[in-house]
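testing teh design pipeline on a random one, pls ignore if ur not involved
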């Protein structure tokens, strides 16, 4: 959809990234999508998201987005490879746990799918007949209202503080 260039903002003396619509994306549809991208990204503020500095059109009516130029990562390829290995290891472990859970629940899932194909919607009593009652904490939470719940927020460094219930 677009082409990105590194450029220098001569007015402010900083490096920026400029994104233009590619020549093949010059239709009204792509221009509207480009504007939606600009509006969406301008609402975000996060250290891992490039800041949108500018949106406009060139003298030739070519739309562009001016972004903060990312500085790249501050770790080595070796560290990146170790991170990738750890992530792959964690995913593999969770994948096996999920596979086992799905295998154990296969009969219930098949019965649920069959009932949904037949009836399209299911009421809670039908779900209980198919799957059994909800396990302990989930069943208790289902009966709660927001004013019954007292939440605990975990702050940085493991400190905890109690939050007052919110009004419904």
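output:
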């Amino acid at each position: 959809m677009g082409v990105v260039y590194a450029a220098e903002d001569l007015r402010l003396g900083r490096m920026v990234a400029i994104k233009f619509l590619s020549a093949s994306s010059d239709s009204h549809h792509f221009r509207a999508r480009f504007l939606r991208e600009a509006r969406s990204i301008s609402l975000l503020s996060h250290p891992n998201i490039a800041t949108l500095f500018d949106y406009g059109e060139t003298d030739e009516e070519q739309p562009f987005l001016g972004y903060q130029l990312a500085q790249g990562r501050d770790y080595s390829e070796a560290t990146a490879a170790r991170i990738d290995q750890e992530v792959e290891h964690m995913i593999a472990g969770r994948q096996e746990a999920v596979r086992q859970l799905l295998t154990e629940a296969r009969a219930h899932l098949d019965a649920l799918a069959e009932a949904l194909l037949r009836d399209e919607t299911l009421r809670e009593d039908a779900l209980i007949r198919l799957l059994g009652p909800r396990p302990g904490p989930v069943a208790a939470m289902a009966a709660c209202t927001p004013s019954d719940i007292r939440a605990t927020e975990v702050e940085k460094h493991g400190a905890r503080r109690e939050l007052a219930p919110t009004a419904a």
